[in-house]
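Treating backbone geometry as a discrete language has practical consequences that deserve illustration. Part of our work consisted of pairing the sequence of a single chain with a tokenised description of its backbone. We regard such an encoding as a compact summary of how the chain folds. The amino acid sequence and the backbone structure tokens for this protein are reproduced below.
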Amino acid sequence: MRVLLLGADGYLGSHVAAALRALPGTDVRTAGRRAAHDVPLDLGSTQLPALMADLAALAPDAVVNCAGAVSGSALHLAEVNARGPALLCDAMLAATPGARLVHLGSAGEYGVCESGTSLDEQAALRPVGAYGATKLAGSLTVAGSPLEAVVLRVFNPIGPGAPAGSLPGRLARELHRAGPDGTVQVGDLSAHRDFVDVRDVARAVALAATAAGPLPRVLNIAGGRARPVRDVAEGLAAAAGFRGAIDETAAGSERSAGVSWQQADITAAADALGWRPTVPFGTTLTDLWAAVAAPAAGAPVADGTPAVSSRERVTAR
């Protein structure tokens, strides 16, 4: 089976690449802007004829789209998160109509929800801000396509390689810089999020790409339990042996203020893929801390993401 992976250089994509390559008989090809990729591709700017030609030449059995933008201008978010999936769908329909498309969506597509509730795939979609809105546009395009396609709506991925732009990744770096007795300033950590280990996400993607029959159009991929963001801070502090202070008086993110609770119902993923999260939360935090505190020799910390300055503050995302 040949799988084309878009976004293999990113946090989720790098773990998905490893999971796919571990499957016997799977030929994984990648697409991206670096010369090392099999297919040169910038999904935010490439044109339809070029993408059609690349797909026809490669003839993949499945395409996995991990490409996405979490920050930048509204135009950039729209180009990558909304235009990109639409272009991909049109190109696949023309060049590889029999291939399956697995697209990674986001919990940000749900947006505001009632505290204490669990979100299933039929829940109302009320994204907050340009990120959630553009991710939703892309997911709706994939879910409504005539292709054999599935949107995996990923909640809060966490684990080794977490980028500095995410709360867990940035907090781990702040703890590393502060030392065991320092002070780390954060925003309000009372928001509840549904965290899922990035390796469990990668396993769900591999299952979806190689499933024998048609799949539901949307599946939630999450831990199935809302946790206070404070649990991440305290767990990382424990893993780091941190004895200092975690100060929650810094400004928090607008997105966290607007969405104080998210918890997923993951029943559909269990039924369709036989998937459930398996990595314990404590193990996830320990492995994230270890990756930041003692990265492999010569390897960049947290998947190549540049470190933030000591003046930057951690905010819940």
